[in-house]
Structure formats: structure tokens, C-alpha cells
Amino acid sequence: MDEIVNKVKNSGLKTIDLAQFIPNEQVLTFDIKDFLWQELILKEKDFRAALKDFDWNTYEGKAVAIICSADAIVPTWAFMLVASYLQKHNIKHIVGSKDEMSKQLIKAKIEEINPADFTDERVIVKGCADIAVPNFAMTYLVTYLQNEVKSLMYGEPCSTVPIYKAPRK
To answer: The pTM is what?
Structure first.
């Protein structure tokens, strides 16, 4: 009887699973609206006091998207002050949406890859992963690795879609 040979395993293809880029941190929102008088007006003294008394430990180990969901004029320094408190508690944060925060976390995880590990390799990016912003993750991965790889494909080893092939040297 003939031995079963795993041709995919022996093909020299390297597979990257998008699931490895799912952020470890839960992304939460800090809404400045909740600290405005009648959700409309920022009173500096009250705002500063509320931030000082706020329990920042509720965000420990998480990532925070700072927003203001009210239709209010909020000065730039208010966002800076919130960021300062988050920074003091070593909490990852951005001013922007939860999706933007997820993108920053995914980008950081992709950048943990050493592109040199993929020099002249044939790479498949697995597409089936429950990731918050899959299009961003895939396109950033292409941008990050394309100058190193021999080829880049999407899908599964048995059925791939070619994305990039390096010119012959």
C-alpha cells in the first residue's frame, strides 16, 4: 500500500493565521459626554474633579477609545486630560472609535512579526478568523510583508487566491 503524503506540509508554504492578531485586550469606550454638564457643556472645574475622582482601575488591562458622543464642543485639552489619566495608569488608549483602537492593537501585533523570517517565502494568509477589522488586518499584513515574500496568497493551502508574486531576480 502506498504511503499517504501530505503535499501541503511538504510544499514549503508558510501559513499566517489572522487569529493570531486578535487583540488580547478588551476595547472599551471612555465617553466624555458622561462628564459634561447636561451632556452639553464642559465646566472645567467640575470636569477636572470628576476625572480626579474617577476609578481608572476599571480600565486596567484593557484598551480605551476616547470619544465624545454628544453634539457638544469639547476643547482639545479635555481629550488630552483624559489621555493623561489613562497614561498615568498605563492604559493603552487613543482618541477615536473602538474600531480604530482595535486597528492600533492589530497593527502592533503584526509588527511583532519579524519580516526577515518571511524573506523569499511563499506565504498563505488564512482568511477564516473572527477578527474585529479583518480588511484592515489583511491589508496591513500585505503592506508589512510584501517586500520580503516570494509570493503572498489568501485562503487555505488547498485553495488559494494569489495576491502578490515578487518579480524574478
So the answer is: 0.82
Q: Are residues 85 and 126 in the same domain?
A: no
Beta-carbon contacts of residue 47 (< 8 Å; ≥ 6 apart): 35, 36, 78, 81
> Which amino acid is residue 157, in one-letter code?
P
Q: Please identify, among 102, 123, 156, the residue that sits at the C-terminal boundary of a domain.
A: 102
**What pLDDT shows up at residue 31?**
98
Residues 31 and 87 grouped into a single domain: yes
Q: What is the mean pLDDT of residues 128-137?
A: 77
In terms of domains, do 34 and 62 share one? Answer: yes
Give the pLDDT score at 33: 97
- For every residue of the chain, DSSP letters joined together read -PPP--TTGGGTEEEEEGGGGS-SSPEEEEEGGGGSBTTTB--HHHHHHHHHHS-GGGGTTSEEEEE--SS----HHHHHHHHHHHHHTT-EEEES-HHHHHHHHHHHHHTTS-GGGGTT-EEEEE-----SSHHHHHHHHHHHHTTT-SEEEEEETTEEEEEEEPPP-
